[in-house]
Amino acid sequence: MTLTAQHRTTILEVAREARASKTSVSRYFSEERKRLSPDMQARIAAAACHLGYRPNQMARSLKGGHSGLIGMLVADIRNPFSVAVMHGVEQACREHGLSLMVCNTDNDPAQERERLALLATYRVEGLVINAAGSPDRELQAWVEEGIPLVLLDRELSDVDAEFVGLDNAQAIDLALDHLQAQGYGDLLYLSEPTDQASPRQVRLTCFLQGVAARGLDGEVHCQPLMEHDALQRAIGDFLARSGKRHRALLCANGNATLAAIRALQTLGARLGETGLMGIDELDWCKLITPGITTLAQPTEAIGRSAVACLMALLSDSTTTTLRRHAPELIVRGSTQCPAP
Amino acid sequence: MTLTAQHRTTILEVAREARASKTSVSRYFSEERKRLSPDMQARIAAAACHLGYRPNQMARSLKGGHSGLIGMLVADIRNPFSVAVMHGVEQACREHGLSLMVCNTDNDPAQERERLALLATYRVEGLVINAAGSPDRELQAWVEEGIPLVLLDRELSDVDAEFVGLDNAQAIDLALDHLQAQGYGDLLYLSEPTDQASPRQVRLTCFLQGVAARGLDGEVHCQPLMEHDALQRAIGDFLARSGKRHRALLCANGNATLAAIRALQTLGARLGETGLMGIDELDWCKLITPGITTLAQPTEAIGRSAVACLMALLSDSTTTTLRRHAPELIVRGSTQCPAP
DNA sequence: GCTGCCTATGGAACCGTTCCCATCGTAGCT
DNA sequence: AGCTACGATGGGAACGGTTCCATAGGCAGC
């Protein structure tokens, strides 16, 4: 029966022990410490340390209105891209003295709504959103209440908020330029169904336009990656078809790249001879012989600029931060087309 | 000049609009809804909906003492293992009506202390700790204040708290049994320096004992994985040494596996002929030809049982949950020793 | 010595809830 | 009818801070 005294010391107790008023103790722990006499400061410091006092952030934000919290909605926490961006967001928050409250939604719009409501009850001061569905109605309410809001990676048409993420048009251009330069002329674009996810839509559109503009052959396969057989059949058909140009696969994201490699291995295709290139750099891309060519997203930078955006909105400043970030091309063996 | 009314509606406003008292509205939003008359309920529902009311969790926890928050300290958020466990923790929290506040510490003990203090100010009701350093003093304070605390993956000797994680001894046994059965008799164990990280220590010790018990040859390389040259030299020496038994590498975690594959590729070793096996299943393990044999940790289960543990401590119940989880052996080509 | 200002400090109201206790009406019982 | 019991509701004191305003003392200037 360990009936522990579940009691956190309060400001009043510190005040008593330090022979001061709670106002003074409060001043000590906010930014007004310098207004106190050295003697008073010493007494409070001693008392607080002795009692192990920690200000109650809940009470603090109740009166002051500042929760010190930034909320973040992540569509899929198990996606390394999301985690990397989140890492950047967290670092930037810390530098601004804010804490991050992350909610994963597992790509479920219902959970998304739910978690959004939750974040509202904690009175977060800003929101970074990587949405799965389109909770436009809910978000618009936030906007109208004046709460800063940044859309990450995925745009939402009906919400009047800033967007931060990859410059998808530039990415696809870069990819097509590279593939063409390497001698690939017949392309298969692999993506999960575009659904509501704006980057998928943008990338797909850019691919189709870019292929046409360059006079390349371009095909598209947009099916759930879990349907492994369909994917394999599509790739098999693509490779088997007659044609005189070298063939390459362009994968819309890391998951697609993973699935493509699996399929190509099953089909016995040789990477390089069949070109392969993907958006998103993952740590295993250099391990698959002969290395997978990728477009790396500047994840840290994206995360940080999301917070920068938020801070700008909070302080009403007009400093603009970079919103659409350029990818970095990492060339490896999977796009080295062997000379005929 | 959009001077938005940064004003969240309060319980009092809802009460006024519903012609009720704040007590009744409060009851409506807590678990006492059934005590209200149907008419009253309807009025409150209408008013709340109309005004877009959301209870203020800050005020709520100030009065009630229940923040509804669980804190989690993660040593390295970019480690897929950590993320997978975190996912389990989050799900379990949600099922219990709790929210998760995750703090990443980037393996930095100083940050660890800092984030721990932060979580204290938010009055989290429980703590899941995957520690980098050994903030024993701080944690012991939590324990003494009666705040439930669970150590995840990494144990701390001086803290009187529950541990949840992999059954490391069983994992190493399983690995050695498998390697021996596959005909490998000369083993190199690859790990990052054990430092404070308890699972690394345990795994290493078990390896040494297990090797001795089985009459196998066992060597160890415990250096930072970033020192790629040293690693490669060590592996090279290991492979070049004369001996009549088949050789295999056993990797202590996912990072070690990654580094080992890189080194083996550079050395031109053939997987299988040189055995390779690692703890931690990662999505690319099946992609590297001929597939990497792994011991998968039941990450979801570990995360969930961490929360279960916490809940048990919170409710003072004596139900015990599984603490040390069994790994799952996933056999692939990297441990198929070709017949001589 | 009096006024005036500035610094160090304290008192008390307030932030948005919860919860204890009081009130009121009515149904059930003797 | 009178009393109790109970169900529905409201009033007001917390919770642990912040912050406005008041006060006390010290010192310069006249």
TrEMBL record, chains A, B:
Nuclease as UniProt keyword: no
Gene3D superfamilies per UniProt: 3.40.50.2300, lambda repressor-like DNA-binding domains (1.10.260.40)
Residues covered by the HTH lacI-type domain: 9-64
Superkingdom of origin: Bacteria
Pfam families according to UniProt: LacI, Peripla_BP_1
Swiss-Prot/TrEMBL keywords: DNA-binding, Transcription, Transcription regulation
One example GO MF annotation: transcription cis-regulatory region binding
Database matches in SMART domains: HTH_LACI
PANTHER family according to UniProt: LACI-RELATED TRANSCRIPTIONAL REPRESSOR, RIBOSE OPERON REPRESSOR
Name of the protein in its database record: Transcriptional regulator, LacI family
